[in-house]
Design a protein that fits this description.
elongated, Rossmann fold, 12 strands, 10-stranded mixed β-sheet, microtubule binding, alpha/beta, Dynamin-type G domain-containing protein
Length: about 650
């Protein structure tokens, strides 16, 4: 604190620290001085600071923060009526808007620049325009600009307003003044005014590059200040927080103890000011020092971020499709899409490679097809009869009775075997057809997904690509279903296999015939249940009355059992081979033909590729703007880095 209050307090404050520290690393907790009242604020100015600040201000003017690059910023926060406006007026040497309630309704970027000119130069920048003003009318100009940005009334906005002040004697500083914190809305303010202000403040003070200038009134308990609570949330150690204590003449008692106790962790120290003059030069000097140190500390990281983001945007632009101006360019792009899509389909449908879709299990196609084939095989087995011992031989006996004719006895009519075979085939005939449809529905999802991915930049053709995909799969599905129906009909038509497993299995089963017939027909104990390997326990009492054809029925049962295993395996094996052939034809031949016919045929409209989609056009515009902004930023930081290099020379 500088001057004012009781004599004992003044002595104590002077004893604590009567001069500004010469070494930044000493950084005492409290900076309390009483300089010569005529000492100019600009006494702390260093010619090397201005270029650094100009560079950062140019970056800020380019709105580089929109690219995610944070800039060193002094952010001024304080509770309402903390004296924040008085501090800023003292630093800038101008009058700011005054009144009841919130005076600052938008973030006010104050750029102060020392210039040895006869008349001060003041102007405002907002909404893309520049408004000149002067010291007499600056307050009114700020109010008018604020009304234009935030609307009439007492609402707030996060759209910034820049005030540049060029005059002799001001410190070279750039600060962002934020709305004063209030919890209770006054008439005309929204009910959530506190939340709106808090959101703006947190946005500005959260980045590690921000220096928080916390304005506190000496008349209040610092620990209760809302601005302290907010700054502590993002700067717990206080290493980037500087406190300015205002109205120190109104509460001098215990002020030294208050700032030296530092109950609220102010790492950059306290500056006490009074009457808009006393202590302000110290504050100006301290802010210039902190600002210069922050810029110098963060500049290398800013340079690195600019280069990294520029490279990323250039790479992104290169990845985007070229804007085409001729049909030949469109044709080249079209064939490239087909080529890339075919290669993706070869990978996932034929070769089992899924490096393009590592985390999408649906696109690991060969594995999914194997799973579906196994499920198909299991379903065929389940639907072939769950209990082979139930009504054992009765179906065979009934068929033999109905197909008997005049001829030699103990002769197994082939018609009876085919009758049973056809009945069993009818029981499962829908399963292969359903499986074929299921597989092609899955393949359709995959094909459409791949086509859409590779044609993502050509929205105007995606409908045609999708239609071609649907038509292609529909054709392939019909072919498969027709083939499956033929296979089913062939299995119904006749009984044939050259597989030696048939005879081997039949002989194995027939080896039990003699013992079975003995137990059923000649065993004096006449057991009611006979155990038969492969079938379980058989109830045989009702079979004894069919002794005349029991042996034929047993033979036919064993023949059908052995042959049915061959049939089921054949249905699975043939289906697997058919799918491999069909999917291979789809990828290697049919896919390209169908797409080309769709796009090159009448109404296909490949020329529509010359029209860039709104999303791609918007993305291209955004990327180009980012590249332009980052290139300008790179030039700015390159110049300042060269200048810094010249200092070291």
């Amino acid at each position: 604190m500088a001057g004012g209050g009781k004599h004992s307090n003044d002595s104590a404050l002077k004893k604590k620290s009567s001069t500004v520290p010469q070494h930044e690393e000493e950084n005492p907790l409290a900076i309390v001085v009483q300089p010569d009242k005529d000492a100019p604020i600009i006494s702390s100015y260093n010619d090397r600071i201005r270029p650094l600040l100009d560079a950062v201000d140019k970056l800020r003017h380019l709105m580089i923060t929109r690219e995610g690059i944070q800039l060193p910023t002094i952010v001024v926060v304080g509770d309402q009526s903390s004296g924040k406006s008085s501090v800023l007026e003292s630093l800038a040497g101008i009058n700011l808007p005054r009144g009841q309630g919130i005076c600052t309704r938008v973030p006010l970027i104050m750029r102060l620049q020392h210039k040895s000119i006869p008349q001060p130069e003041l102007f405002l920048e907002f909404n893309g325009k520049v408004v000149n003003t002067d010291e007499e009318h600056v307050s009114e100009a700020i109010n008018l600009a604020t009304d234009e940005i935030a609307g009439l009334g007492k609402g707030i906005s996060n759209t910034p307003l820049t005030l540049e002040v060029r005059k002799n004697g001001v410190p070279d500083l750039t600060m962002v003044d934020l709305p004063g914190i209030t919890r209770v809305p006054v008439h005309g303010q929204p009910e959530n005014i506190y939340d709106q202000i808090r959101e703006i403040i947190m946005e500005y003070i959260t980045p590690e590059e921000s220096i928080i200038l916390n304005v506190l009134s000496a008349t209040v308990d610092f620990t209760t200040c809302e601005s302290i609570r907010m700054s502590q949330m993002v700067d717990k150690t206080g290493e980037r927080t500087l406190a300015v204590v205002t109205k120190s003449d109104k509460a001098p008692e215990g002020l030294v103890e208050k700032v030296t106790a530092d109950d609220v962790n102010i790492g950059l120290g306290y500056v006490c000011v009074r009457n808009r003059i006393v202590g302000v030069p110290v504050l100006a000097q301290r802010l210039v020092q902190i600002q210069a140190a922050s810029i110098a500390r963060n500049l290398p990281a800013i340079v690195k971020s600019i280069n990294e983001k520029l490279n990323l945007n250039v790479a992104e632009l290169k990845r985007m499709p070229n804007k085409m101006s001729s049909l030949s360019e469109a044709m080249t792009a079209f064939m490239q899409i087909i080529g890339l899509a075919k290669e993706s389909l070869r990978k996932i449908l034929l070769r089992g490679e899924f490096d393009e879709y590592p985390d999408e299990q649906k696109m690991h196609c060969t594995a999914r097809l194997v799973e579906m084939l196994n499920q198909y095989s299991d379903e065929l087995q389940r639907n072939s009869g769950s209990n082979p011992a139930k009504n054992f031989l009765m179906e065979e006996i009934m068929v033999l009775e109905e197909t008997k004719g005049i001829g030699l006895p103990n002769f197994l009519p082939r018609s009876s075997f085919l009758t049973l075979l056809q009945k069993k085939m009818n029981g499962i005939s829908s399963i292969p057809i359903s499986f074929a449809e299921k597989v092609w529905n899955y393949v359709e999802e995959v094909v459409i997904s791949v086509i859409m991915q590779h044609s993502d930049n050509y929205y105007q053709l995606q409908l045609s690509f999708r239609r071609a995909g649907h038509n292609l799969i529909a054709k392939m599905k019909d072919q498969s279903v027709n083939w499956v129906m033929e296979i089913v009909e062939m299995e119904k038509l006749t009984d044939y296999t050259c597989n030696p497993e048939y005879l081997s299995e039949w002989n194995k089963l027939m080896a039990q015939q003699d013992s079975f017939m003995k137990d059923v027909l000649t065993n004096e104990e006449r057991p009611s249940i006979v155990k038969l390997e492969g079938f379980g326990e058989i109830e045989v009492e009702k079979l004894r009355k069919y002794s005349h054809i029991l042996q034929q029925a047993f033979d036919m049962k064993m023949r059908m059992t052995a042959y049915w295993k061959i049939v089921l395996k054949r249905l699975v094996d043939c289906m697997a081979l058919h799918l491999l052939l069909s999917v291979g034809n789809l990828v290697n031949k049919e896919f390209e033909i169908e797409i080309v016919n769709e796009l090159m045929g009448p109404g296909g409209g490949i020329e529509r590729m010359l029209e860039e989609s709104p999303s791609v056009a918007a993305k291209r515009l955004k990327v180009n703007k980012s590249i332009e902004l980052l290139k300008k930023s790179k030039e700015i930081v390159a110049k300042i880095m060269d200048k810094i290099g010249s200092y070291s020379d």
